[in-house]
């Protein structure tokens, strides 16, 4: 499967190389277009709330960069946005997506540091899943020449989050040990790669069993997500571990804390356990909240333990730490150029295939990152399905859960 990911990256590279001329032509000729395609979330809920439609072309405001998007990152967080499980989302209809890569098409007044035609990757506070995006210059970074657009869309959120948790929050150093859940996912693989840049770091990864063959070499010890990982880790390290990275929440909070060595750090950075089906489950939400260990600081003092939380999007969009994130991005791009890290791309999907792409995450099928490739055409539908995902401009609603009966042909052969 990891091999499959690598092949797909090559395929993207090929697709993009083939289209270089076309891309630049677009940059010049698209200046007058009044509309663009975008994925719209019509309301919070299941996959049927997503559709591709036409939207007014955005124009860059003062200090913004207008990007002709080539690829967008699809994150677990986007499933939570769709379900309405995140804090204070904008009111739908909204365009989801927090990161993309592409080519600078124009600059707002007083925007400095970029030129038309630059290859860039960017964070966007929603609105990334579109053909064109405008975002403040502080959230835009130049791509290395050798990086593909798919890799760039898989890079920013996963690697910046992984780096900041390991090095800014947990001060990872030589000889330490790290436990990471969802080790085969986008963040999980970034964590594994970054740990390998520090000598003698032991990584305990937890992932669904079928991913083990593909990701075994990326971590030191790998456990099935269904086993009692506390017992397994303690058999190897009776003292526990230095860092626990918990993106699941619920009962894993208490388990993670119990695994910490003295002076160890537990970081909560997600709540994947709250997603148990296609739509928001109040039961899972309440269960996760209820199961979280209520921690007494006096106990932390006695046991010499550190608890932290980390949210990259809040750091960027609510807490104004974009210059810190920029400095982290510079370090990460050095590591990329030294070939010490490389985003793992699971698969590429057309905008019109966004439902199937999300379903793949719900099914726990991904190894690495899913990418929406804006220039990719949807793969032909199976004969059994003639009413799949809405094409641009279509507005019809599908009954919830209808998606189950529909399948696309494999997107890469
Ligand atoms: N705080 C931050 O700044 C930040 C930034 C990025 C991501 N995150 C969080 O980090 C986690 C990983 O994000 P990602 O985007 O890299 O996604 P990802 O790990 O690629 O997500 C998919 C994987 O998550 C695992 N998983 C765990 N619970 C699941 C559930 N209820 N439904 C489906 N899959 C589940 C599955 O792997 P296994 O079956 O192998 O476990 C699945 O393949 C998420 O919780 C996300 O919200 C936080």
3D structure, described in words:
By secondary structure, this protein is an alpha/beta fold. It folds into 2 domains: 211 residues, Alpha-Beta Complex (Quinone Oxidoreductase, Chain A, domain 1); 160 residues, Rossmann fold (3-Layer(aba) Sandwich), CATH 3.40.50. The chain has 13 helices and 15 strands. The strands form 3 sheets. Strands 3, 4, 5, 6, 7, 14 and 15 form a 7-stranded mixed β-sheet that branches. The protein has a 6-stranded parallel β-sheet with strand order 10-9-8-11-12-13, sandwiched between helices. Strands 1-2 form a two-stranded antiparallel sheet. α13 links the parallel β14 and β15. α4 crosses α5 and α4 crosses α12. It is globular and about 65 Å long. It starts with a helix and ends in a 40-residue tail after the last strand. The N terminus and C terminus are likely disordered. The protein binds NADP nicotinamide-adenine-dinucleotide phosphate. The site of NADP nicotinamide-adenine-dinucleotide phosphate has 29 residues, from α3, α4, α5 and α13.
């Amino acid at each position: 499967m990891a091999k499959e990911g690598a092949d797909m990256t090559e395929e993207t590279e090929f697709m993009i190389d083939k289209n270089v001329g076309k891309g630049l032509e677009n940059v010049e000729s698209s200046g007058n277009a009044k509309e663009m395609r975008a994925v719209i979330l019509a309301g919070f809920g299941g996959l049927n709330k997503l559709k591709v439609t036409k939207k007014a072309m955005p124009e860059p405001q003062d200090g913004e960069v207008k990007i002709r998007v080539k690829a967008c990152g699809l994150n677990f967080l986007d499933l939570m946005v769709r379900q309405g499980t995140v804090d204070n989302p904008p009111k739908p209809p909204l365009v989801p997506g927090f990161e993309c890569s592409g080519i600078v098409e124009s600059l707002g007044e007083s925007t400095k540091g970029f030129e038309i035609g630059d290859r860039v990757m960017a964070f966007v506070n929603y609105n990334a899943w579109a053909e064109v995006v405008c975002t403040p210059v502080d959230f835009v970074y130049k791509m290395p020449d050798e990086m593909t657009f798919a890799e760039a869309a898989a890079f920013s959120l996963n690697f910046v989050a992984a780096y900041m948790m390991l090095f800014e929050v947990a001060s990872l150093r030589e000889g330490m040990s790290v436990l990471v859940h969802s080790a085969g996912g986008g963040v999980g693989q970034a964590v594994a790669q970054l740990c390998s840049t520090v000598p003698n770091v032991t990584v305990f990864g937890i992932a669904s069993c079928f991913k083990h063959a593909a990701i075994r070499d990326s971590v030191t010890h790998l456990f099935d997500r269904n086993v009692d990982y506390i017992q397994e880790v303690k058999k190897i390290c009776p003292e526990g571990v230095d860092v626990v990275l918990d993106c699941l929440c619920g009962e894993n909070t208490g388990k993670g804390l119990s695994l910490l060595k003295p002076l160890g750090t537990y970081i909560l950075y997600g709540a994947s356990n709250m997603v148990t089906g296609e739509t928001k489950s109040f039961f899972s939400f309440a269960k996760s909240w209820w199961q979280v260990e209520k921690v007494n600081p006096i106990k932390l003092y006695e046991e010499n333990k550190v608890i932290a939380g980390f949210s990259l999007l809040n750091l960027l969009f609510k807490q104004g730490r974009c210059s810190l994130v920029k400095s982290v991005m510079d370090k990460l791009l050095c590591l990329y150029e030294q070939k010490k890290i490389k985003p793992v791309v699971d698969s590429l999907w057309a905008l019109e295939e966004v439902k199937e792409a999300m379903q793949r995450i719900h099914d726990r099928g991904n190894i690495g990152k899913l990418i929406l490739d804006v220039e990719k055409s949807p793969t032909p539908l199976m004969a059994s399905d003639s009413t799949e995902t809405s094409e641009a401009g279509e507005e019809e609603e599908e009954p919830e859960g209808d998606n189950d009966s529909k399948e696309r042909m494999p997107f890469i052969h």
